[in-house]
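Teaching assistant's notes for section 4

Start the section by putting this record on the projector. Ask students to predict, before seeing the second block, whether Proteolipid protein 2 will look compact or extended. Collect guesses on the board.
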Amino acid sequence: MADSERLSAPGCWIACTNFLRSRKGILLFAEIILCLVIMICFSTGPSSEAYYSSLPVFEMIMAAVFFVIYMCDLHTKIPFINWPWSDFFRALIAAILFLIISIVVLASPGKASKVIAGVLGLVSTCLFGYDAYITFPFRQQRHTAAPTDPADGPV
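Reveal the predicted structure now:
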């Protein structure tokens, strides 16, 4: 049993580093880090404004879940969930909510950490929007041209 655990660990590490080098892996990792920074910026403010940090916490958890799902190839092993659409709606809703929260935060006066969180929220809007754009399921389908007969009929 120890041999199988020892042999599976490098495979897991290789899968993790290979996924982390892909475009989707880099996006998900950047989303996790950006949400963590925004959450810290919102948390340093007064306790009456700490409710803004619930969106970055939720999106950080969701990005981490999708990171693990894609890294371990669970999206191919769990076929009853439509993963491209789930990931698209996760990123699209996050982009919209971060845009709304950022506008609200930047429109109200506050400390510097709140302004930084608002600006980083706008950056995360762009990041989540780009993630939604590249994961849009119809964009990923490749179409091949159908063979056509000559207009004059068979030759």
